[in-house]
Design brief:
This protein is an alpha/beta fold. Helices cover about 35% and strands about 15% of the residues. It has one domain: 3-Layer(aba) Sandwich (Rossmann fold).
Length: about 180
């Protein structure tokens, strides 16, 4: 999909139309580089570690409390991500996904939503198609340049350092301020 017109692209100022954010009913996120710092840490034993931001987790819980469906959509497949999703009681955990847009579209249909009611945050080129299709798209401050050029909002925070919470606060502020 081609990037959005420049009039609809990448705001760092937070000047995203409240009407856009107030329509969100499904929030989906990538993992590596968004919920984490994009690092993959391996122990000599072969164990893999990822660092998640607890404030992002609390934000996800706040979305759920507000009645917004939460989802993880990632190409990776790890027990760590499954454990994190279980702890946060995220109802839609999708790992090993090669076609993220098809999956997000499928979720929207299942919940009776349109893509305009979906927010998605991603950081790399495998997220571009989905970012261009949803109602609200964002990337962490350290997202890839091609992604930053295509999204509605570039976070002030980096992946794994509160970018997800930043977006969640914007969505909740728009919805509670209606």
């Amino acid at each position: 999909m081609p990037p959005r017109p420049s009039s609809q692209r990448a705001s760092r100022s937070g000047k995203v139309p409240r009407t856009l954010l107030s329509q969100i009913r499904l929030f989906a996120t990538d993992v590596d580089g968004v919920l984490t710092d994009a690092g993959m840490y391996y122990a000599e034993s072969g164990d893999e570690w990822k660092k998640f931001n607890t404030r992002d987790g609390m934000g996800i819980k706040l979305l759920q409390k507000a009645g917004i469906i939460t989802a993880i959509v990632t190409q990776e497949r790890t027990k760590l991500v499954a454990r994190r999703a279980e702890k946060l009681m995220i109802p839609e955990l999708h790992q090993g996904v090669m076609d993220k847009l098809s999956l997000v579209r499928e979720m929207a249909i299942r919940y009776g939503l349109t893509l305009s009611q979906v927010a998605y945050i991603g950081d790399d080129i495998n997220d571009l198609e989905t970012l261009n299709a949803v109602g609200f798209s964002a990337t962490p401050a350290d997202g890839m340049p091609q992604v930053a050029a295509a999204v509605d909002y570039i976070c002030q925070k980096k992946g794994g350092e509160g970018a997800v919470r930043e977006i969640i606060e914007m969505i909740l502020d728009a919805q509670l301020g209606q």
